[in-house]
Amino acid sequence: MRKLLFAALVVAFILLITFLPPGSLAALQHYQAQFSAWHQQHPLQTALAFFVIYVVVTTLSIPGATLLTLLAGSQFGVVQGTTLVALAATCGATLAMLISRYLLRDWVHLRFATPMAAINRGMEREGLYYLFALRLTPVFPFFLINLLMGLTPIKTLHYFAVSLVGMLPAIVVYLNAGRQLSQLRTLSDILSPGMIVMFILLGLLPLASRRLVRILQKS
């Protein structure tokens, strides 16, 4: 089901780019150029503003984290973008976990009793490795992992560290995708080698993550 969903998203993206109205790509590039110019003039302020926005988005589970990650790849590059996104995403996830633990415990327990039971079994059986596996191949949505982990006795520092490492592979792949998207100059560039590699990496990410989890389980 996930493979079919990903394939559908890829096809939809290609169709969207291919059938954009004349001038649409140029308009998008214009706004991106404006943002890039502001980033060049105020690099520290831009990075700080992006970090704060990303933390708020992930803490409150507001849709848009994926788009922000793509934006980071296009504006900050892989190295700086990875640093910003990884730290912001982990800070947001940790804050969401703490909010669940100290403010929403009763509501989360009543609302998500069934997945909470699965989380408890996994933590009892595998400990921190279970969280690491969830971050690599999320069985539950990102926001739900944060909420449910708040009801476990996991230490905050351990949650931060394991989440940071577990989310890194996906972050790097999406940052690279954002960098490739920013290099589009014409509609024909959608079939460039860089874009094709980007689609391949996005498609292989879930498979590679599951494979890595199995290897670590065996070891």
UniProtKB/TrEMBL annotation:
Membrane topology annotation: Multi-pass membrane protein
Claim: Cell membrane is one of the keywords in the record: yes
- Native source species: Buttiauxella noackiae ATCC 51607
- Membrane-spanning residues where? 50-72, 84-104, 128-149, 156-178, 190-208
Q: Where in the cell is it found?
A: Cell membrane
Q: Which family does it belong to?
A: Belongs to the TVP38/TMEM64 family.
- Give the highest taxon in the source lineage: Bacteria
Q: State the name under which the record lists this protein.
A: TVP38/TMEM64 family membrane protein
